[in-house]
Design goal:
It is a single chain. With 27 residues, this protein is mostly loops. The protein has one domain.
Length: 27
Amino acid sequence: GARTSDVHTSGDVKHTAGTRTCDAHRR
């Protein structure tokens, strides 16, 4: 249930501040 949007950086799994870390993109 991860929403792929501006929340993620290009080619990175980093999330913007204030965003819940998506377990789907979690390493």
